[in-house]
Amino acid sequence: MQTHSSPNTTSAKHPFRQFILASATVLSCAFIAVQPSVHAKELGYPEKEELKFGFIKLTDMAPLAVAYEKGYFEDEGLYVTLEAQANWKVLLDRVIDGQLDGAHMLAGQPLGATIGYGTKANIMTAFSMDLNGNGITVSNDIWAKMKPNIPHKDGKPVHPISADSLAPVIEELSKQGKPFNMGMVFPVSTHNYELRYWLAAGGIHPGYYAPHKGDNSGQINAQAMLSVTPPPQMPSTMEAGTIYGYCVGEPWNQQAVFKGIGVPVITDYQIWKNNPEKVFGVSNEWQDKYPITHIRVVKALIRAAMWLDENNNANRPEAVKILAKSNYVGADADVIANSMTGTFEFEKGDKREIPDFNVFFRHNATYPYYSDAIWYLTQMRRWGQISEPQPDQWYMDIAKQVYRPDIYVQAAEALIADGYAKATDFPAFATETGFKPPLNEFIDGVMYDGTKPNEYLSKFKIGLKEDQKL
């Protein structure tokens, strides 16, 4: 039985089943099928069964919705309520104060909290929720001015589109005394760093932060003025003329196309192929109190991610129907399907195949790589959120404090023992270092090696590096 207790809440409680679980030590033979796992004895029962998880209305919350709807949480003896949150700050605050047991988070949130940028708190993640999934959209007027600067082939713009096509537009507006305002979802969001990366790669300075001077605007020396706008409000804010464009997750880029108010110019897959996007975050205190519960949560989320990607995304149409429900994303199913089913529409009618626009399990998407964490930390340093230069070892230490592949491995091995997964579905745990090989799949061709963060920072023309401080 499932109950939807409010438009933004999904919950499930099964008293009879809880009774069975509580009685499992006596009735183990008779009721083995309803125990949390056939290997419950080895892993242990969850310390806390009733849980509340938060999320923002974006398609990449899908593993939470699927784990709930498919009964994967219940298979682990967990009775979960899923609750939409107003914005990323509220979501983080509620995890910190214990109102939420965990949440769908921006990958930068556990890192930013741990180093004390914004709210200081010890937050960690053992599960990466997805790869890719974002886009950068501009208004119709800005697109019309960019278009002459973009190479075309067979009447269509050649992708990926560089931000250098936007530079003359910004310069023209600057001469008129108009700032070029763009929206992103949060100061430590992937969207902020992807938008900054794209702009800087095209020679446009996105501005610095200077927290040591009390300036957290991120607009020092900026040619493009970036500020926070909640994801669902992006299209209407752009339509009102408050911002000229934005970087956001789905379905809010495709929504602009459907409404005829804007054009997505690039996806994050084209900025950084197979970039990590969201994570599932909990407080360190929560993990310490409920370690077995946490492993079981990760087990359920891994199963959901596998379901979302299996058989070449064969389950995505069903996933779209789930996400379209008002208590999840609540957007039109056709809008969600535009990206979730392997295509992406840029200009109206210019729909292109991007099978990996949303990845939930392929390419080891769910594994919490240290090198992913370090990339976010390099961008925090590049744009001044980390004011002081730090040695390479500092980046390593923070990554290992926040990203916890050891917990992930326990969950994955339990799934393998349960027969829900194979060892070949995961990285080779015996030899995995947590660092991906050096990558050069970025729009500007700059090579990233997670073991050499300061060397990486030194390669950029725009951004802080070495001993520089504002």
What proportion strand?
15-25%
Question: Number of domains in the coordinates?
Answer: 2
Strand order of the largest sheet: 1-2-4-3-5-17-6
CATH C-level label of the largest domain: Alpha Beta
What low-confidence regions span 5 or more consecutive residues with pLDDT below 50?
1-7, 13-40
Question: What is the CATH superfamily label of the largest domain?
Answer: Periplasmic binding protein-like II
Distance between the terminal alpha carbons, to the nearest Å? 57 Å
State mean pLDDT (0 to 100 scale).
92
Secondary-structure content class: alpha+beta
Helix content: 25-40%
Would you write up a description of this structure?
This protein has 470 residues and is an alpha+beta fold. It folds into two domains: 3-132 and 279-343 and 357-368 and 404-425, D-Maltodextrin-Binding Protein, domain 2 (3-Layer(aba) Sandwich); 134-275, D-Maltodextrin-Binding Protein, domain 2. The chain is built from 21 helices and 20 strands. Strand 1 and strand 2 form a beta hairpin. Helix 4 crosses helix 15 and helix 18 crosses helix 19 (392-402).
